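Build the 3D complex.
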Amino acid sequence: MSSKAKKLKRGFYLRPTLEVARDLIGKYLVYRTGGRLLSARLVEVEAYIGEDDPACHAAVGRTPRNEVMYGPGGFSYVYFIYGMYYCLNIVTEVKGFPAAVLIRGAEPVDGIEIMNLNYGRTRQVRLTNGPGKLCKAFNLTRKQNNLDLTGSNLYLEDRHDRAARIKSSARIGIKKGVDKNWRFFDPDSSYVSVKR
DNA sequence: TGTTGGATCAACT
DNA sequence: GTTGATCCAACAC
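Done.
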């Protein structure tokens, strides 16, 4: 880990969601668990913004499930989907405005052997190219919902890499809101889940 | 109280 | 290209 690594502060997350999403590409997700350190470089994210975005969980209004999206930016939102998978989101914007960035893909950096154990892989597989796979490799579940990302357990940091190329596209796996190009990814990474 | 479908993935044909 | 695995939140009744 570079000595230049800098944890992202609250102010980073309180900005407009599309800016946060774009800026998250090339940043590092860090998770300290059981005395071990897991980290991965983010290469694919999607923005979900407000009650007027039909694909956003907040489109149905405030519920117990999406409550954390209504809080201030810089907290984790982990939800369960399809009976088998968890997805990790980064809450953005100021308190009262529901928005978040879904982490869809990342390149494993630290603790890869732990990720393999968490995944219980049956064969050689990319561990973190997909939102469900990433949570499985990091062992993130509902217990990691609503964590303060300015704390010391789960956070994001800037390791001052050279800037990545960034492309945008429609979001993946949704039926509504496909007109918006709110997905951002690094086209040079092999850990992007869907090439388009 | 019951039904339904989802911001997924892997293993098939 | 299609499907099975498998849970829970949201909504209808």
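The first helix of chain A runs from residue 10 to 13.
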